[in-house]
Write a structure and sequence with these properties.
Belongs to the glycosyltransferase 77 family. It is an enzyme of class 2 (transferase). Helix 6 links the parallel strand 1 and strand 2. Strands 3-2-1-4-7-6-8 form a 7-stranded mixed beta sheet. A two-stranded antiparallel ribbon has the order 5-9. The radius of gyration is 28 Å and the shape is globular. The protein has one domain: Spore Coat Polysaccharide Biosynthesis Protein SpsA, Chain A (Alpha-Beta Complex), CATH 3.90.550.10. It contains 15 helices and 9 strands. The longest helix has 18 residues. It is an alpha/beta fold.
Amino acid sequence: MAQQKYLHQRPIQNPFSSSHLSNSSLSNRPISLLSRNGLLLLLLALLVILGVFLPWAGSPLFPFPTNTLSPSQSKWRDYSLAQAVQFAAKNGTVIVCAVSYAYLPFLSNWLISVSRQKHQDKVLVIAEDYATLYKVNERWPGHAVLIPPAFDSQTAHKFGSQGFFNFTARRPQHLLQIVELGYSVMYNDVDMVWLQDPFKYLEGRHDAYFMDDMTAIKPLDHSHDLPPPGKKGRPYICSCMIFLRPTSGAKLLMRKWIEELQDQPWSKAKKANDQPGFNWALMKTAHQVDLYLLPQAAFPTGGLYFKNKTWVKETKGKHVIIHNNYIVGFEKKIKRFRDYGLWLVDDHALESPLGKLE
């Protein structure tokens, strides 16, 4: 009891007094992280760490917005689709693609081929994450826009995943908004390469133009009507390349595509993507929309171009856009492009509006 009474009466030292912080007391007493000195040192360390790393926020390592954005980055966060389309469109037409950060090399490769056909100035990149938005506009101001919400760039590009479905399911919404603004729009996936000018093949004044995804060889003078349904009850058209005019028919097609994606969402049992919904929409609106199937020789699917050497030789000089599909995997696509001399960024990176990506 006497000892307990003494403890209650013992005067409390000021931890910030000179005597308490004497050399002898600091050298003889270990500093606990729970003590006031320990907390002060921990706070100081945190301030140093934040001082070092916060200036990097907004870089690819920090793909989401922070309160430390530079003025130029803050400008692009408020950039609307209407403003971006007005900036990029030429003669009432804009070319769009949707890209996450992992696919920047493919974007650059595609842009080189587009630049060779003198159409790069009308390209608008719909960025799916903030890292892509800032990177493209840093290199090529005004040519990228982000339509919230932003996606996780690491999950949005894995084919068959829910992230991939969420990423691609927004495509008809973007295209609908653009045609409602009064512009014609061409959509491309960025795992494509242009060998010729595709606009020369947009004959007539149809509402919507698209390419077949079947590998069966068609005659050179094949019909441009929507192909008949296949085994799954729908045609097999690729949603990778679409051209729309700002007509009521094109708007109807996009709205129907949106409805189909809402009616058939992604699930673990049915790992959907956007293409079946596009085909159902085409079939269900065919009697109301003026549709045009592009020539197979000019717009072949990857399953034909990369796998049928005889057909490629027979149609030499007719190929316009090559799509690197019918293969899954980032590295596999790059290798295939390299094998066919279509990975242009190796030797021609400076032809891209983005320049050489580090």
